[in-house]
C-alpha cells in the first residue's frame, strides 16, 4: 500500500516547494522505491491553461492532454515518470465536479458543504490510482494561512487519521531570513508558520528550512523546541548552484533518511546517486560556452519558459558546453534592426507564444536566421512565424499571415476546427470556449525518411506533446517546398504539418509541438542536443 508524504509551504511563496518535492521523489527513487508526485492548486481556475504565462509561468502539458502547473515539469524531469491529468487538481476543477454532481441530483436531500463534500473530493483525488507506487508525494500549492488553501489543508489533515498508522508524513518548507543588522538568521517566521499549521490540526514531522547560509545548531534546536519537531528532522536547505544538485544536497542533510525514519522504515542502504553526480558535474565543468538568443514575448518572467530553459541546459550537458541565454523581447525588432542583437549569438530560438503582439519581430528573427545561416529552432508559434517568413520571402506569398491575428488574405497559418486523435475526430467551434480546447497532449507524427529531423531522432515515427489552436495550412505546402522549405513531418493522416526544415541551411527546423516538455537531464531531447551542437559549430565559425 502506498505511503503519503504531504509537502506544505510557509512564510513566503517561491521557496522551491516543487523542486524540493521532486528532489525527495528522486531520492526515494534512487533507493529503489516507486514514486508518484501530485499537486493540489488552490486557485479557482479549472486549470492554468487560461492564465497568463507572465503571471503563472509555463503551462506544462501532459501526454494525456492536461494543461497543468509547471511543477509537474519538475516532477517529470527529476523522476522520469510521465505525469497525467490526474496529477494536478485545482479548486476550480473540484468545484466544477461537485456542482455538476449537485445539478444531476447526486447529493439529493443534502446541503453541499466544504466539509465533507469538498474535502471528500480532494481526498478521493489524492488516494486515486496509486496502486503501483510505494510513495505518493502530494504538494499543496500556496502558503499556509492562505484562505483559499484551507480545504486542501483540512483534507490532508483528515487523511492523517484515515490512512493506516504510519501512512502519512508531513513536511513543511519554510524560510529563515538573514537580518544583516542583527547578523543572524531568524527562526521566528518558521515558528509562526508552524503555529499556523498546527492551528489547523497539522503537526509537521519534518521541517525543511531554506536559508542563504548554514543554520547554527543553536537555531536548529530552537526551531525543534518551538515547532515540536525532532532536532534531526529540522533539515537545512541551502541554495545550490543548479537545481539538479538539490537531491544530492538534501540527501547530505538527511532529508530522505528522516522521511524513512518517520515512516519507521530502515534507511539503509544509501540511495544510488551516481547519475545525479554525473549531471551536476556536466553542468559544473563545461568545456565551452555557447550563446543562444530566445526571441519571445514573456521574457520578463523566466518561469514562462521553464521547460525550455531546462531543455537547453540538457542540450548543453550532452555537448559539454554551458548554454548562455540571451533574452530578447521580439517587439524590439519591429523598431530596431535585429543585426546588433543577433549577430553575436550562435543560435536563435523562437518559442511558443500567443497573440499578435511581437509576432512581426519573431518573423524578422526567423528571417535573420535564414539569411545569415544562424541555427534556428522554431517551437510551435516559432515554427508558424518561420513558415510565414518563408512564404513571404521565398514563396512570393506577400500577404502571408495567421488567422490568429484576424482575417488573413493568405492564411498560411489558420484555425483548425477538426482533426484526428488516433481514429477519433476531434471538433471545435472557431468561436468556442478558450479553456482546454486546443490540440492538446501527445500526438504521433511521421517524419520523411532522409530528412534532417528523421536523422536527428533516429526514427520516422515520433510522439510529441502539442498545445496550439492554429496549424500551418498545407494548401501552401507545394509552393513552400518548391521555395526550399520542406514539410518534413506530418500527422499520420498527412493533413497537419508537424515539422518544417530549410534545405539550404546548416540547421533551420520548426516543430509544431513542444519537444522541451519531454527533455530530461539524463536523456536530453535529441532536437535540443542537435540544436546546441549546431550552435557550437556556428560559434567556431564566427
Ligand atoms: N498561438 C499559436 C496557436 O495557438 C501557437 C501556440 C503555441 O506556441 N503554443 O496555434
From TrEMBL:
Entry annotation: catalytic residues: 380 (nucleophile), 514, 516
Q: Which UniProt keywords apply?
A: ATP-binding, Glutamine amidotransferase, Ligase, Magnesium, Metal-binding, Nucleotide-binding, Pyrimidine biosynthesis
Q: Which PROSITE patterns match?
A: GATASE_TYPE_1
Q: Where does L-glutamine bind?
A: 353, 381-384, 404, 469
- The residues that the entry says bind CTP are 13, 146-148, 186-191, 222
What EC number(s) has UniProt assigned to this enzyme? 6.3.4.2
Q: Where does ATP bind?
A: 14-19, 71, 240
Pathway annotation from the record: Pyrimidine metabolism; CTP biosynthesis via de novo pathway; CTP from UDP: step 2/2
Report the residue ranges that make up the CTP synthase N-terminal domain in this protein: 3-264
What does the entry list as the binding residues for Mg(2+)? Answer: 71, 139
Where does the record place the Glutamine amidotransferase domain?
301-533
Q: How is its activity regulated?
A: Allosterically activated by GTP, when glutamine is the substrate; GTP has no effect on the reaction when ammonia is the substrate. The allosteric effector GTP functions by stabilizing the protein conformation that binds the tetrahedral intermediate(s) formed during glutamine hydrolysis. Inhibited by the product CTP, via allosteric rather than competitive inhibition.
Instruction: Tell me which residues bind UTP.
Output: 13, 186-191, 222
Renumbered residue ranges of the record's region Amidoligase domain: 1-265
Q: Catalyses which reaction?
A: UTP + L-glutamine + ATP + H2O = CTP + L-glutamate + ADP + phosphate + 2 H(+); UTP + NH4(+) + ATP = CTP + ADP + phosphate + 2 H(+); L-glutamine + H2O = L-glutamate + NH4(+)
Family according to the record: Belongs to the CTP synthase family.
What interactions and quaternary structure are annotated? Answer: Homotetramer.
NCBIfam families per record: PRK05380.1, PyrG
The record's function comment reads: Catalyzes the ATP-dependent amination of UTP to CTP with either L-glutamine or ammonia as the source of nitrogen. Regulates intracellular CTP levels through interactions with the four ribonucleotide triphosphates.
Q: What is this protein called?
A: CTP synthase
Top-level taxonomy:
Bacteria, Pseudomonadati, Pseudomonadota, Alphaproteobacteria, Hyphomicrobiales
User: Gene name?
Assistant: pyrG
Amino acid at each position: 500500500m502506498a505511503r503519503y508524504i504531504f509537502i506544505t509551504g510557509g512564510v513566503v511563496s517561491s521557496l522551491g516547494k516543487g523542486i524540493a518535492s521532486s528532489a525527495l521523489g528522486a531520492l526515494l527513487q534512487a533507493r529503489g522505491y516507486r514514486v508518484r508526485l501530485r499537486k493540489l492548486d488552490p486557485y479557482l481556475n479549472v486549470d492554468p491553461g487560461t492564465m497568463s504565462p507572465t503571471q503563472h509561468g509555463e503551462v506544462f502539458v501532459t501526454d494525456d492532454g492536461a494543461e497543468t502547473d509547471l511543477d509537474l515539469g519538475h516532477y517529470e524531469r527529476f523522476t522520469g515518470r510521465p505525469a497525467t491529468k490526474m496529477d494536478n487538481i485545482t479548486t476550480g476543477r473540484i468545484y466544477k465536479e461537485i456542482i455538476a454532481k449537485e445539478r444531476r441530483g447526486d447529493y439529493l436531500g443534502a446541503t453541499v458543504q466544504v466539509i465533507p463534500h469538498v474535502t471528500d473530493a480532494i481526498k478521493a483525488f489524492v488516494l486515486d490510482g496509486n496502486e503501483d507506487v510505494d510513495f505518493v508525494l502530494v504538494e499543496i500549492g500556496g502558503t499556509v494561512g492562505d484562505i483559499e488553501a484551507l480545504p486542501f489543508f483540512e483534507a490532508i489533515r483528515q487523511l492523517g487519521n484515515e490512512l493506516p498508522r504510519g501512512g502519512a508524513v508531513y513536511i513543511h518548507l519554510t524560510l529563515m531570513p538573514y537580518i544583516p543588522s542583527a547578523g543572524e538568521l531568524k527562526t521566528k517566521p518558521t515558528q509562526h508558520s508552524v503555529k499556523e499549521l498546527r492551528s489547523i490540526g497539522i503537526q509537521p514531522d519534518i521541517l525543511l528550512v531554506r536559508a542563504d547560509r548554514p543554520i547554527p545548531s543553536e537555531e536548529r534546536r530552537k526551531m525543534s523546541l518551538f515547532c515540536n519537531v525532532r532536532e534531526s528532522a529540522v533539515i537545512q536547505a541551502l541554495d545550490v548552484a543548479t537545481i539538479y544538485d538539490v537531491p544530492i544536497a538534501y540527501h547530505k542533510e538527511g532529508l530522505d533518511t528522516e522521511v524513512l525514519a518517520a515512516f519507521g522504515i530502515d534507511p539503509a542502504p544509501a540511495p544510488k546517486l551516481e547519475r545525479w553526480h554525473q549531471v551536476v558535474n556536466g553542468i559544473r565543468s563545461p568545456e565551452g560556452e555557447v550563446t543562444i538568443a530566445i526571441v519571445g514575448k514573456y521574457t520578463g518572467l523566466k518561469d514562462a519558459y521553464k521547460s525550455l530553459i531546462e531543455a537547453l541546459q540538457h542540450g548543453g550537458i550532452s555537448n559539454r558546453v554551458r548554454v548562455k541565454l540571451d533574452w530578447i523581447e521580439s517587439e524590439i525588432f519591429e523598431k530596431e534592426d535585429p543585426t546588433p542583437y543577433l549577430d553575436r549569438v550562435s543560435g536563435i530560438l523562437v518559442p511558443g507564444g500567443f497573440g499578435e503582439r511581437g509576432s512581426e519581430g519573431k518573423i524578422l528573427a526567423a528571417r535573420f536566421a535564414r539569411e545569415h545561416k544562424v541555427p534556428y529552432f522554431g517551437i510551435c508559434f516559432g515554427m508558424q512565424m518561420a513558415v510565414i517568413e518563408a512564404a513571404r520571402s521565398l514563396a512570393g506569398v506577400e500577404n502571408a499571415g495567421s488567422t490568429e491575428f484576424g482575417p488573413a488574405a493568405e492564411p498560411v497559418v489558420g484555425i483548425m476546427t477538426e482533426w484526428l486523435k488516433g481514429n477519433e475526430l476531434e471538433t471545435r467551434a472557431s468561436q468556442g470556449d478558450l479553456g482546454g480546447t486546443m490540440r492538446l497532449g501527445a500526438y504521433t507524427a511521421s517524419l520523411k525518411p532522409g530528412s534532417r529531423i528523421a536523422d536527428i531522432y533516429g526514427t520516422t515515427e515520433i510522439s510529441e506533446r502539442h498545445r496550439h489552436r492554429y496549424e500551418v495550412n498545407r494548401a501552401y505546402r507545394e509552393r513552400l517546398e518548391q521555395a526550399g522549405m520542406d514539410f518534413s513531418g506530418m500527422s499520420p493522416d498527412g493533413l497537419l504539418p508537424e515539422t518544417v526544415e530549410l534545405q539550404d541551411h546548416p540547421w533551420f527546423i520548426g516543430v509544431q509541438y513542444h519537444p522541451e516538455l519531454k527533455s530530461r537531464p539524463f536523456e536530453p531531447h535529441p532536437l535540443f542536443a542537435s540544436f546546441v551542437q549546431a550552435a557550437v559549430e556556428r560559434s567556431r565559425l564566427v
